[in-house]
Design a protein that fits this description.
The chain is mainly α and 161 residues long. The chain has 6 helices and no strands.
């Protein structure tokens, strides 16, 4: 039995087509952004977990900690994004670290969904629906109010200077 041998290619263009493309180093592309998002996410998730430990939800009770974590996180997102848009041009990894990582890890849609499911399973559908609506409305109001207030403050300070 013989081992197949590669064909000899004399044409440089054809030879480069047969050469596998070199993969760029991980840290030259998306790797740094993924790393800072992961680091920020760990920080945000730890803060959210701490809030849940400090303010635990009794079985069948209203999940106040998750509601306020999500509302606070949305308010901070409103401030942060307004400052980025109107005041500060941050370094390239600030937005992925803080906006996506820290605030993405801090706010939590998954715990919100599990809390609703637990309320429904505990026979408290009205509380579950109230929590669903309250979180959605309060989070949207928080991000809008924080962004609008930050916008007004930025422009008021700009006029004072």
């Amino acid at each position: 039995m013989t081992v197949p041998q590669p064909e000899r290619v004399d044409d440089p263009a054809a030879a480069s087509a047969l050469t596998p493309a070199r993969r760029p180093p991980v840290w030259s592309g998306q790797g740094r952004a993924v790393a800072v998002v992961a680091l920020g996410g760990g920080i945000g998730a730890t803060a959210r977990y701490a809030a849940g430990l400090l303010w635990p939800t009794p079985v069948g009770g209203f999940p106040w900690a998750t509601l306020w974590v999500n509302v606070l996180g949305c308010a901070v997102i409103g401030v942060f994004m307004t400052l980025l848009a109107e005041v500060w041009a941050p370094r390239p990894l600030v937005r992925p670290f803080f906006g996506t990582g820290v605030l993405g890890g801090f706010t939590t849609f998954s715990t919100y969904a599990v809390d609703i499911e637990r309320l429904l399973d505990a026979g408290r559908p009205r509380t579950g629906l109230a929590y669903l609506a309250a979180t959605l409305l309060a989070a949207l109001a928080a991000v809008w109010l924080a962004a609008a207030t930050t916008h007004r403050l930025v422009h008021a300070i700009g006029r004072i200077r």
